[in-house]
Amino acid sequence: MVQTGFDFLVIGGGIMGLAIARELKRTRSRARIALIEKETTCGHHASGRNSGVLHAGFYYSKESLKAKFCKEGNRELRQYCLQKNIPINQCGKLVVASNEREVEGLHELFKRAKANQVELSFISEIQAKQIEPRVKTAGWALYSPTTASVNPADVLRSLHEDALQEGIDIRTDASYLKQTADGILTSKGPLAAHFIINAAGLYADRIATDFGFSEHHRILPFKGLYLYSSEPAYSLRTHIYPVPDLKYPFLGVHFTLTDAGRIKIGPTAIPALWREQYQGWSRFKGDELFEIAMRQMKLIFSSTWDFKRLAWEEIQKYFGKKMVALASNLVEGVSPSDYRVWGKPGIRAQLFNIKTEQLENDFVIQKSQSSLHILNAVSPGFTAAFPFARYVVEKIGS
To answer: What mean pLDDT is predicted for residues 204-230?
Structure first.
């Protein structure tokens, strides 16, 4: 027997799923809205393991959805945290160059900031050292005053509570199993719904294929690890990032300050062998290992974007010494003895186009009259969640 029917059913209790459910309720107050989450708590995966950085929005090309939502998302999420008394470290960020060639990269980022109307300053090395005396840079740097950081677990907990108070039916420990004629089957029984939103992160592509979508896309997971410093809190004043290689959706090893001012370096982007390969053999799935390993092997020998080099460089970061060496290019006084403690690992649900054999750099959404699938919502997905949710709800229509 089918359980209670709903107008809207959201699959996935990360920040995207919660934000979309709340936006649906805000715009359709009488709608019956449910959200299912396979874990016992919301935000157990990517959202809760996020770096916590609220990005400003200057990395992304003007025409991208990431550029469209990041700046406004930064403002709205900072405002939300202040309203909810969630600690927020409004420390800003320096982007530094290690040589003259990378100074050209600073100019490209500054150009993107202007196109996206994001506040960003092109500053001298002297000015950079006034912001953070320990910083290293080749003559010039960028300063982003609106970059901040929060504890993602605090944000997810608050959003979960808000959603419950607003009348959203949240069902945890309820895994999606398959599509049915009038909804879906979960591990806790069937649910009927007029419209289904798939915000399942690492498994969004698999769920989408049940609905006839994601024909040319698969998730290619990458493991993100941070090393924490034993230096006192606020030993650095601001986040410090290198100039990224804009061909890839990764930002390189950098210094991040937590909401409490603690320093961490990372993240890695190590190719994972199954979707939830957090530690050891936990959550191992043989079918995923086979599929993902075969795809990675093919990329090693045929990739046009040098997956082999990327994989080798990232695997070396399993050793803290490599991470510290890269970080020492950005900051003076970096001692390996200060970096001994690994943080909680995360997995980036990176979308891969199996037809073009390219990583997708922007958000990807596919929809029909009865379902919508968020296939790629990686960084800055956490920052952009609120305006992105409005965009999704607008695409659903009346």
So the answer is: 98
Are the CB atoms for 307 and 296 separated by under 8 Å?
Answer: yes
Nearest-angstrom CA–CA distance, 70 and 59:
10
Q: Residue 397: what pLDDT?
A: 86
Q: How many CB atoms lie under 10 A from the CB of residue 77?
A: 24
- The fourth-level CATH superfamily of domain 5-396 is FAD/NAD(P)-binding domain (3.50.50.60)
- Whether the CB-CB separation of 8 and 34 falls below 8 Å is answered with yes
Q: What is the mean pLDDT of the chain?
A: 96
Q: Locate the domains of the chain by residue range.
A: 5-396
Q: Is the pLDDT of residue 282 over 50?
A: yes
Distances (CA, A) of 220 to 4, 7, 149, 322, 346: 35, 32, 27, 24, 14
Contacts of 79 (CB under 8 A, 6+ apart): none
For 157, phi and psi rounded to 5 degrees? -60, -45
Task: Report the pLDDT value the prediction gives residue 1, as an integer from 0 to 100.
Answer: 46
